[in-house]
Structure formats: C-alpha cells, structure tokens
Amino acid sequence: MTRGLASVLPAARIINIISSSALAAHKNNSAYGAAKAAEMHFFQSLQEEYSPGQYQITNLYPKSIASHGPDPKAIDPADLARFVREQAENTTTYYLRDVTIYPSA
Known about the structure:
Elements: H1 2-6, E1 12-17, H2 30-49, E2 55-62, H3 77-88, E3 98-101
Parallel strand pairs: 1-2, 2-3
C-alpha cells in the first residue's frame, strides 16, 4: 500500500505504529515479533530510499498500549493518538524517525 501511494503522492508524512516487539525478542511472541521486525525493516529501508523532502517516515514503537481498557501500566490510546497528531502537524525543521514510547507508570 505504501509503495502504491508513493507512486501517486509526490510527498507525504508517514507515521507507523509498529510495536516495541520489533526491537527485542519476547518469550511466546515469536511470530508477532518477527512480523513487527519485518515491518520495521521495510519502513527503515524506505527511510533510506526517499529523502525527507519526499517522505518523512516516523516509526513508533510503543511498549504497551491499554487497548483492552484502562491499565495504569500501559499507554493510554488517547495519549498515543495525541502524539501521532502532534507529529502529523509538526511544522518544525525536524521530524522524528524512530521513537520508542514507554508508559510512565
């Protein structure tokens, strides 16, 4: 899908929510971790293929998201959504490429 969009959009900001499972192996998580590592590799390769003037690609690696209800040891999905929106609306002279996000608790 990304390659297809790149063929019709001359420039864009791409923000991926991958998973911290892409960064390190975890017990009983091999298939999921391998899939996320492949996704990370794909988008890091695109970061090298395209200039930031064409595509600013940001990969987010959240440690834990409270996707099944409130969890004090996980990132609130609303907070993650705010962070993604801030990155999408960023008009500074920089952008973030690869960011690991941890819950504060």
